[in-house]
Amino acid sequence: MVDLGKIPYQGQSFQEVSTLIENLTKGAQKDSGKAKKAFSCKRTAFEVQNSSAKLSVSSWRFQDWDYKRRDLPTYARGLFMAKNEKDQNEISIRGYDKFFNTGEVHETEWRNIKTRTKGPYELSLKENGCIIFISGLHDGTLLVCSKHSTGPRGDEVSHAVAGERWVDRHLKSIGRTREQLAKELRVRNATAVAELCDDEFEEHILAYDTENAGLYLHGININIPEFVTYSSPQVHAFADEWGFRKTDFLVMEDINEVKNFLDGVAETGAYNGRDVEGFVVRCKARSNDSNKYTDWFFKYKFEEPYLMYRQWRECTKSLIAGKAPRFKKHQKITEEYLMYAKQMLAKNSGMAKEYQLNHGIIKLRDDFLKEKNLKGSDIIRQEYAETGGAPEDRSKNVILVPIATIGCGKTTIAIALQQLFNWGHIQNDNIQGKARPPRFTKAILDLLEEGVPVVLADRNNAAKHERKQILEDVARTHPHVRMIALNFVHTTETIGKIRRVTQDRVIARGDNHQTIQASSDQKKVLGIMEGFIQRYEPLDSDKLPDADFDAVIDLDPTKESRQNLETVVAELHNLYPKLFIEMPSAEELDDAIRFAFCDYKPDIRHNIPDRGPKNSRGNQQHTLTQNTKKKKPLEYVSVALSKKEIDAALDTAFASVSSNKAKFYRQLQQTRRIQPEFHVTLIHRASKQSHPELWAKYNDLHEQSGSAENKLGDCKVLLERVVFDDRIMAVVARLVDENWECTNKIAHVTVGTRGPEVKPKESNELLAKWLADGSGEETGISEVAIQGRTVVNGWVKGNLSR
Ligand code: GDP
Ligand code: MG
């Protein structure tokens, strides 16, 4: 009998499952409407094989990219539901929560892993098969699923069916039945998760011979929306009991030990003499807003020699198909491998066909390595020695190549990177005259040669021929330089929003640009922008020229540049950890973006001729405008109010209360502690980290405002009530104009403080306390209503740091 006290256990709540279904469906519906883009979750029904009650199960599947959202009702990857004996919905299969590579998302950046997680850390090899889920239905059927389906697929042996066959073999080896396993899993309310590794069925890159083939049990999850999973000893115990193969776990207590270990193995991609793809690390993590630890996974993926083997496999398939194999990396050894492969294919007539069916891939590779007396990891080490080091050692010679259209934030990010790391930035817009492409490339390479480690090639490169130009020109003379695409992804679905966002930005940018002086000629500018969008050809890493990029960093043009900057920095750090010593802090990133927004002005300005013949000589004007105007950075943004109006409202309010209640107000008046001017603070520099987008928005407005008083707009304010204790007094205010946003919990006007030791910003604490506990004797807080609907006019103002 199972002792549920000794393993994680939780029963299902019918209510919880209905809510989950409701939320999954709602998300899917919102998506189709015009409303705000929601996640989409697709439901597919399957008949359950061999079910006496003729049950069916539904698989719920999110789009892969949706897992990066923060609003999903569950993060289970692999989720199936069915009706129970009471005709209620229940979760039948619950996969792991989707987990990410180190550096792939904010949570998996090492610095966050280090602070948010706790041990024990259980490391398992990232198995290279396909995932199989097993559970028990109420009628006693054992349900076996692959990630998103179950049962046969036409005549094919589906993954699920192959998995099922293996379950039978394992059960048979210990003399147990499917029914028994189904019942056991049902009692535990759990899903068994295993990896199907069987080269006879389907060969992946890494080898599993007959002796090692089978189902490797690696986890047991509780069938509830939250992620609760067994520890590795509990998984092992279950595998032993039920005849599954076991997944090895390395257990470490300290995260630094984990990182050192992984970095060490990553040097070669081999562990215990075996080529591996990576590791999955299981631990507990707490979310930002709570101290509760929950089960959490991340992965660490190796690059080489795994990627080299994959390249060999693809090249061999091209060879068999009579196509020229195309490859960029591991040139010399790949050529040698292909020579060998060609000979072998010629010698063995049946081999090509087998290979196309994914059989014999590993053997061919191993035979080649044996003949050369080499190991994959040796090749990689050798190559690194020849080409200026492993990616993890690279500290220079990197070019960032945007693939973008106008207004995506290329220049903003370039300036921010320059500010953060002193990296180089060559703007195509600053290069004038003839033969711009080679001169552009040369300017970039010159900087690298001067020792600048990274240079951003600031040009749209929207068309493939532009990418081809820079990739080929650099490779010809500087093959050791790494080319990283900053891929501002444009898709048919997002193009409308991208147009809106970039047009708004560029129009707001006004004349502050070398070639595009938007406010002077808006129509022309929109035409030029549209031209780039029309010429935009999406990146296709499978084909040349884009296959030549060493890595691609995907960015979303509609996101704030602050966020894209962080993505670029994090991914570069992930690719080349030695490019910079330490990840910049959020504040440093903020400052760099702010610098790019506020302080930077282009040095030169040249007018492009109207769309006439391109080289209509003589008509090009070069107006060099040395920029001297530099605005001071913002300290805070406020709605400034008329002193007279506020004083009048206060006088009226206190005129009709007892003298005792008005005592503090009189005291402030008599000690000249009433503020000399009144305002509602909208945002202070101190909260730019908690509200980066709002801060950026106000900064932009500030940058664009031509007004000498730094006026950003108008805003009416409704005065509600006066709240005070014996230290400080504030008026609770409401912004009537919805265009403006305030970061304080309660928008307010500080009226005055008892003495200089009490700072005006303490109004926030007073009001928080008032909101929580109310006014009255116990709290020591008083309030006086402001009668009628008192609305005053205010003007939104940027206040500069001194
Ligand atoms: P590029 O054409 O790709 O080089 O784009 P820029 O970096 O010059 O950005 C175009 C305009 O949009 C500039 O005025 C930027 O200050 C502004 N901009 C860039 N990023 C952002 C952002 O995240 N938010 C807002 N509101 N404006 C931005
Ligand atoms: Mg630009």
TrEMBL record:
Compositionally biased residues, Polar residues: 616-627
Listed GO MF terms: ATP binding; GTP-dependent polyribonucleotide 5'-hydroxyl-kinase activity; phosphoric diester hydrolase activity; RNA ligase (ATP) activity
Any GO CC annotation of this UniProt entry: nucleus
Location of the tRNA ligase kinase domain: 399-557
InterPro entries named among the record's database cross-references: P-loop_NTPase, T4-Rnl1-like_N, Trl1_fun, tRNA_lig_kin_fungi, tRNA_lig_PDEase
Annotated region described as Disordered, given as residue ranges: 606-629
EC number: 6.5.1.3
Catalysis performed (reactions): ATP + (ribonucleotide)n-3'-hydroxyl + 5'-phospho-(ribonucleotide)m = (ribonucleotide)n+m + AMP + diphosphate
Keywords assigned: Ligase, tRNA processing
Active site per database record: 126
Membrane-spanning residues: none
Protein known as: tRNA ligase
